[in-house]
Structures are given as structure tokens and as C-alpha cells.
TrEMBL record, chains A, B:
<dbReference type="GO" id="GO:1901605">
    <property type="term" value="P:alpha-amino acid metabolic process"/>
</dbReference>
<feature type="domain" description="Aminotransferase class I/classII large">
    <location>
        <begin position="32"/>
        <end position="387"/>
    </location>
</feature>
<keyword id="KW-0808">Transferase</keyword>
<keyword id="KW-0663">Pyridoxal phosphate</keyword>
<dbReference type="Pfam" id="PF00155">
    <property type="entry name" value="Aminotran_1_2"/>
</dbReference>
<dbReference type="GO" id="GO:0030170">
    <property type="term" value="F:pyridoxal phosphate binding"/>
</dbReference>
<dbReference type="InterPro" id="IPR004839">
    <property type="entry name" value="Aminotransferase_I/II_large"/>
</dbReference>
<protein>
    <submittedName>
        <fullName>Aminotransferase</fullName>
    </submittedName>
</protein>
<dbReference type="InterPro" id="IPR015422">
    <property type="entry name" value="PyrdxlP-dep_Trfase_small"/>
</dbReference>
<dbReference type="GO" id="GO:0008483">
    <property type="term" value="F:transaminase activity"/>
</dbReference>
<dbReference type="InterPro" id="IPR015421">
    <property type="entry name" value="PyrdxlP-dep_Trfase_major"/>
</dbReference>
<dbReference type="InterPro" id="IPR015424">
    <property type="entry name" value="PyrdxlP-dep_Trfase"/>
</dbReference>
<dbReference type="InterPro" id="IPR050859">
    <property type="entry name" value="Class-I_PLP-dep_aminotransf"/>
</dbReference>
<keyword id="KW-0032">Aminotransferase</keyword>
């Protein structure tokens, strides 16, 4: 039968054609390639035995087993939030166990992605402004696009988002009469996906101060996405941006157990300003009542038993070897190539590589076709990591992941990729 | 420090002050009452041992354990969707295993609530219209309110939403020039929360036909919420409304394992028209990438092993006893009271009771205060189950749940409630 016109909401229309969709499609079409594109975690690191044992434990505990399978609460059961607060206190090196942080400000979500999405829903009407580092996490760009946000890029370098650029951007928006539309500054503080860069210790309080200083016409929040926080392979962790937020009314801290433990278990941890607790809880209640709290119990129990901590140490040891393999291969394969450069990340899962401007890397580029069709290697085109409607966005970068491949796979992938890059440099892209 | 004005999105503002929030608040404030209000499931029925054993099985299977903890896919892993399709085929009594239903049309969600919320996000701009039975599931009213939908009630009786009333309402909207704004008809087909009523076999195809007939200016979908479908204690299940939708382009079927298995495990199953697959998948991808698929594996494995089927039989046997206890107590305690009537549900978890119009039952009513303060029993005021802005909504009804209390608790609760009702009838409310 013939059906009349399908009318979708504005939000649904804006949710179509997102970078992640194109990327997934390319991954399917190029399944024969060595993927340096996939943002998955290494399956070898996944805590199969630990999860099995821990599920057994939490379900066996007398009196609590059936509670775990009952409805819980929208933000996650309070006793669990207490455990997660202690874990956060450890990360923050707070000897007071963060006992002054009300449990009401903690949210357990379906990965940190859900908190990012809820926050976007809570803050943005179409045309409201979000400032993001350039480049930044492209999935959040899709979330912002879906709510109709106006995404404004802020220059970032090897030390993260530049405070001077943030000030300049906010001042410009103020001159344009648009400051009242700014809702959020989005910062991936540690080993950013895609750049691998962490915001330096010096810049952290500066970014926070700027969000506050420009909160003149309306409140500007700062979303600190610390998804990769625990995946540090060298050096010392700087204090979180959140730790500088004394009255805890500016920074939303988003963390996840997807990278350090398991993505499939879908447990994220957020800390939000008191003023956002009810709006976010109302939205989350509508969305799913609550996330799977059996899973939250499993992570909480692993935290309490400190089996989690042992596990994360193994995860770090595994990724460190792979990060080193990628950087060594980069030196070896790309070291002599003119105009090719990359960051040396201290953690996370990504190496960000710049090619000369004459070599575009997008899905439609000769370079991408050469890599996927001839050399059989796939990467994430860097241009996905900038606002789609930003004409000045760089188009000659690549996000390279060392998450999924073995060290040998990484070396072979990098060898193949260098072959494509050499070809592109010789043919002029 | 002083913070400037907090600006929230329209959606966040509309998400505040919802019925479920008020109800939870009352539940907390009246924790000393026997609750005939809570919509939780009976903890005695929760499959603690089964879940523990099944998690052990799925994580032990060689090669698959780590896959379960990795990222999956937005709609749930395809092999699992195949298992869920076979389960649906059983419910639908289809001997062909529904093999003509593309797996792409199946969604595994965080409870059915997430599908309801995603669908509302996908279809409604502010001012678009949803038709609902009066009364209906109040949580979905909140979801509709959050997206700014215009909620139009349609008369329902002991056989569900009245097709004549649906036709009349759609015709009226057409005369008013508003037919093009109608997006959805929402129908809880089995043992509706709150009324306990099922849509009769005769009416099912009629409601579907009307949605199609009036899809003149734009497509009108029908959301069949079958959350309680498997909790039938007497009689025979009629075919789903979805089963009459030959080209599967009108009905969205929403089911859940929250009632039959475990709410905490958060697994819902949806079947959606092909035209909605991509919009819903885009929205869900933004929202959480995917629901916890370890949990989906557990339910799928219990389905394959048929341990699920044994479990549901035990759940039904347990609730049947409690349903009977509530109906017997209703007969005994309320049988002689003038103007008091109730439905006799064949399944689900609720008995819907009407008092004379002279006895309002809302949170602010004398009856509610009497019940919670003096007789120490709590119910859900019926007025929550109608659109908040509908002036003509009935105000003298109650939703009584037999889900949580033991049979003795139900009898005592009903005795107490009858005492309040008698008081209200004598004092004139």
C-alpha cells in the first residue's frame, strides 16, 4: 500500500548523516583493511573472568540478589554512588574521600555517552552555542548537531584548548551580541580522542576561570570529558579541571568504565552541578528510568574488591606496548616524509597525524581511496573531528588508533599507511 | 560565588514537574503506608539464580566471552535479534518463525521505556499531536509532555480504546485543520497500566485501520505497548495489533522483559517500521551507542534454553494468586459501597477503581490524606493517568497495584483503603 509523507521531528532530521554513521559504513565496506580507525578497545584486555566471578558474588549475597534485578533509581542506587565517590576520591588524590560531595550530584549512566547526550538535551535550544577544541571528539559533535547547537571551534595545540583562543572566541561572541547563547565549553581533558593531547596542568584552572568570567549574561558550564583518564602510560596525572571548581557549579565531569574495564557493560559515572541534578534526572527518567544497575553493582564490587585496580594496571601495560609500537612505526615509516608530523600521546588510544595541506584525507580523497583500495589500511579522516559547517577546518589529518590491532598489526598497518602517504605526496594527493 | 541565570532547554523545562516525580515523592513521604501504588515487580519472582547461572554460561563460552564485553551495535547484536525474533514468533503463534521480518526492524533497548522515549523524540515537534486512551500509562504522558506534544485523549472502556471515539476524534481534528499534526496513536494493548483492560480482539484491527485511513496528510503511526503481554492469568491472548499490520509500516510494537523477567536487567524489545529504523537508530546512537548487551545475551540465552519460559510460568502463577486476592478483597470490602466499581483484569498488575464523582482522589484530596495519614495505605490517583491540561479528566479514580504486596498485604491494604473510601463517602469527600 502507498503511505503518505513521513514527518520526523527536527531533532530526528538533525540526527541523520552524522560522522559516526559514515565511519561505520566505511568500516563495513573496507572490512578487508587493517583498521587503524576503530575506536574499540582491545578484546584481549576485557575482564571476562572477573565479570563472571563478580556477577556471581553480587547475586549470591543474601538479601541483595533480588534487589539487583528490581527497578533501581534514576541516578543509580545510593550505596553504589558512595562506592563510586570513593573511587573518584582516589583518582583525585583526596584523602577526605570526597565526603563533602553530595551523592545527589553523582549520576550512573549508560556509558559516559548518555551523560553527554542528556547534558546536550538539557542545555541546548537550537542556536545555542557550544565551544569545542579543534579538533575534538566527533561523536559529541554529532550529539550537538542533533540538538541544533551552534558549534564554535577553539584553537587547540599540543597542550590542549588554548586559553587565549578561548578568551578571544568568547570576547568575539560577546561583541556579536551572542554571549547569552553560550551554554557550554567542551573539553576532553586527558588524551583527547582524536588528538591524544591532554590539557596541561597550567591551562586547566585557566579554562575554568574563563567559563566563569564570561558567565555574565547566562551560565556557561564546562564539560570535562575524562573518558581516557585512567589510561596513562607515562608521566603524572594533572589534577582534573573539576577539582578546581570550588563550589562545583561550573564543571560537569564525565567518566566511563568503557575504556578501563568494558564498553559492553555500559557504566558511566558523572558528577554534575547541583543546579543540573534535577533537570538531568528528569530527562534521564523519561529516557530509560535508569541504566542497568546489575552492571553498576558489578563495577562497584570490583572497585571495592580492588580487582578493578589490578585489571586497569594490566590494561595500561597492554596499551603502553601498543602505543610504543605505533610511535616507533611512525618514526620509522614517516620520519623522513616532508610536512608529516604527529603528537606523542602519554595515554589513551590515538595518534594524531598531520599531512601537508596538499594531501586531503577525507572519505572522498585520493589518499583515502589509495589507503583502503590499494594498501588496505583504514584510518579516521581528521576532518570528521571539526564542526561540519566550519569552512576553515583542516582536511589533511588522520586519527590513528592503536586500540584494536596487535603490535604486529600496528606495525603492518603503519607500513601500509606510509606507502599511501608517500604515494599521495608524490602524486600531489 | 554568585552565579548568573541558568538557562535550560525547552525540553528540559517541559520535563520538570511530571506525574512520576510527584508520585515518587509521595511514596517517600508515605513510606509507612501499605503501598498499593508501587509499580514495581514482586521481588520474590526475580530470577536471581537463573541470571547468575546464565551470566556464567554466556561468559564461559569460548570465544564469545570477550565479545560480550566489547562494544556491540546500536540495535543490539544481530545474532541476538534473531533469537528475539523467534521468541516473538512464538508469542505471535507464527510457525514460520517470522523469518520474513528483517532483523533490521528489531531494536533491543534499555527497557521498553527507551523505545517509547526515542519514538517520541523521532516523531514530535512541539504542537504535534498524539492520541492516547483515557486513561493511559502516565509515564508516557510525561515523555510526550517533554517533547511538547499535544496530547488528545480518546475514550476507552472495558474493551480498550473505542474505535468509534478514535474516528470521531480524528474527524474532529481534520475539521479543525489539525490532521496533518497527528503523528501517533498510543495503545497499551494488554492489561493496560493503569486500567488493567486489554483491547478486545475485535477492536485491534479496527484501531489499525483508522490510523491508516486518516494517514491522509501525513503518516500516523500506532504505538502498541505490549509491556504486560506475557502476564496473562486467564483467558486467551488475542493476536497483537502489530500482527494485522501486513506491510509493517504503521505499528511500532514495544515489549519488555522488565515485567516477565527483571526490570533491573533493562532489556526491551521493539519492532519498528522500516521507515523508522534509521531515524531511531541515529537517535539511539547519539543517546548511548547501545544498551548493555551483556544483559541482552543473558535474556537471549534464557530464551534459547527455555529457562525463561519456565520462569514466566512461575511469575504468572505468583501474580494470579495476588490478582485473585485483590479482586476477592475488592468484592468483600467495596462490594456494598454505592457508586464504587472496578474492572476485573485477566492479567497485568493493576486494578482500576472508580469512586463517585463526589470523591476526588488526587494528592490534594481529603481522600488521599485520609488514606495516607489515617489508614496508612497508598494508591495512585487516577487523574495522573490523563493529560494534565484536560479539564474534563475524571478525578475520582484509583490505580491499585497487586505487584509488590503479598496476598496478606493486599488484603490488609484493601481493608484500609475501604475504610478511607467509606469515610470519604460519608463525609462527602
Amino acid at each position: 500500500m502507498r503511505h503518505p509523507v513521513l514527518r520526523l521531528s527536527d531533532q530526528a532530521l538533525r540526527s541523520a548523516d552524522q560522522a559516526i554513521g559514515f565511519l561505520m559504513q566505511q568500516a563495513v565496506e573496507n572490512a578487508d583493511c587493517i583498521s587503524l580507525a576503530a575506536g574499540l578497545v582491545d578484546e584481549q584486555t576485557l575482564p571476562v573472568d572477573l565479570v563472571r566471578e563478580t556477577v556471581g558474588k553480587v547475586l549470591a549475597e543474601s538479601g541483595s540478589g533480588s534487589r539487583l534485578l528490581q527497578y533501581g533509581t534514576t541516578q543509580g542506587p545510593e550505596p553504589l554512588r558512595r562506592v563510586f565517590r570513593e573511587y573518584l576520591a582516589e583518582l583525585e588524590q583526596r584523602t577526605d574521600r570526597l565526603s563533602d560531595l553530595p551523592l545527589s550530584q553523582l549520576f550512573l549512566t549508560t556509558g559516559s555517552q548518555q551523560l553527554l547526550a542528556l547534558l546536550a538535551q538539557a542545555l541546548f535550544n537550537p542556536g545555542d552555542i557550544c565551544l569545542v577544541a579543534a579538533p575534538t571528539y566527533f561523536v559529541f559533535l554529532g550529539v550537538l548537531q542533533a540538538v541544533g547547537a551552534d558549534i564554535v571551534p577553539v584553537t587547540a595545540d599540543g597542550f590542549g584548548m588554548c586559553p587565549a583562543a578561548l578568551r578571544e572566541t568568547l570576547s568575539r561572541l560577546e561583541q556579536e551580541g551572542r554571549l547569552s547563547r553560550v551554554r557550554l565549553v567542551y573539553v576532553v581533558s586527558d588524551f583527547e580522542n582524536p588528538s591524544g593531547v591532554s590539557v596541561s596542568a597550567e591551562r586547566r584552572p585557566q579554562l575554568l576561570s574563563l567559563a566563569r568570567e564570561f558567565s555574565r549574561e547566562s551560565r556557561i558550564f564546562l564539560l570535562e570529558d575524562a573518558a581516557y583518564r585512567e589510561l596513562r602510560y607515562d608521566g603524572v596525572s594533572p589534577a582534573s579541571i573539576w577539582s578546581f571548581d570550588r563550589d562545583r557549579e561550573t564543571v560537569i565531569l564525565a567518566q566511563t568504565f568503557s575504556k578501563s574495564f568494558s564498553p559492553g557493560i555500559r557504566v558511566g559515572l558523572g558528577v554534575v552541578p547541583q543546579s543540573l541534578v534535577k533537570p538531568l534526572s528528569d530527562l534521564k527518567g523519561n529516557e530509560d528510568f535508569e541504566s542497568a544497575h546489575l552492571n553498576q553493582h558489578v563495577v562497584a564490587r570490583a572497585l571495592k574488591d580492588r580487582t578493578y585496580h589490578q585489571h586497569v594496571q594490566r590494561v595500561r601495560d597492554n596499551y603502553r606496548i601498543k602505543r610504543d609500537a605505533m610511535l616507533e612505526a611512525a618514526d620509522r615509516e614517516f620520519g623522513g616524509l616532508p610536512g608529516v608530523s604527529w603528537y606523542r600521546p602519554e595515554g589513551g588510544m590515538y595518534v594524531w597525524m598531520r599531512l601537508p595541506d596538499s594531501v586531503p584525507t577525507g572519505f572522498q580523497s585520493a589518499m583515502f581511496r589509495r589507503a583502503t583500495q590499494v594498501d588496505k589500511v583504514m584510518y579516521v579522516p581528521g576532518e570528521l573531528c571539526y564542526p561540519q559547517d566550519w569552512p576553515a577546518r583542516p582536511r589533511s589529518e588522520m586519527r590513528l588508533s592503536f586500540g584494536v590491532q596487535s603490535p604486529d598489526g600496528i606495525r603492518e598497518g603503519m607500513r601500509r599507511l606510509a606507502s599511501s602517504v608517500r604515494w599521495a605526496l608524490e602524486t600531489g594527493g
